[in-house]
Amino acid sequence: MSQSIRSILVANRGEIAVRIIRACKELGIRTVAVYSEADAASPHVRYADEAWLIGPAPSNQSYLRQDVIIDTARSANCDAIHPGYGFLSENAGFARAVEKAGLIFIGPPASAIETMGDKTSARKLMIARGVPVVPGTESAVTSPEEAEKTALEVGYPILLKAAAGGGGKGMRVVERPEDLRKALESAQNEARSAFGDDRVYIEKFVVKPRHIEIQVLADAQGSIVHLGERECSIQRRHQKVVEESPSAIVDAELRARMGQAAVDAARACSYVNAGTIEFLIDENRDFYFLEMNTRLQVEHPVTELVTGIDLVKMQILVAEQKPLPFTQDDIRLQGHAIECRLCAEDVRNNFLPDTGIVMACRPAQGFGVRDDSGILEGSEISIHYDPMFAKLVVWGMDRMDAIRKMRRALDEYVIHGIETTIPFCRFVMEHPKFIDGDFQIDFVQVHFRPEDLPEPTEDEEIAAALAAIEQHERWELSAAGKSNGGLQIGRCSPWALRNRGGGSR
Ligand code: MV4
Question: Average pLDDT for residues 287-311, to the nearest whole number?
Answer without folding.
Answer: 98
